[in-house]
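>> received
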Amino acid sequence: MHFPLFPTYKTPAVTDLTPQMLQEKGIALLMLDFDNTIVPYTTNDPTEEMARWLRELTVSDIAVCVVSNSKRNRVKVFCKAYGLDCITHAKKPFSKGIGECLAKYDLPADQCALAGDQIYTDVLGANCCGVRSILVKAIHNHNFWLKARHVLELPWIFFAGKRSFE
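>> returned
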């Protein structure tokens, strides 16, 4: 049995995931965390590389939906600007937002993946819903709490070993 705090895959950045790689893994829907996965908490503006990657992904055969715990309007504004579906108030690691996304796209969980920067919300939530989890490195741990959370995740990352997406 897969341990729920171990990601299915690990990759340094979400932009490393190409539509071709996702299709080869049988992934038809990529759910994305927002804060520290697409943009840092401190800005609403993606890097040029991230903006290019989002455009490439949205014209591919891979469905994309941002699934965020955020209650702030910035997620919806960002998603509208980039033509992305989104679900906010997702309550990860609980199944509310992930289940809502699965129902919206009417896809089986094994054809879906969730990419995010946190073990205790993104990875745990995806694994508990039967969705493949992709752990990415946080864009910017800019405060004490984000750094402390990352330190608490290090043992799980270490024991998960090499789980490269390639």
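>> The CA atoms of residues 24 and 124 lie 24 Å apart.
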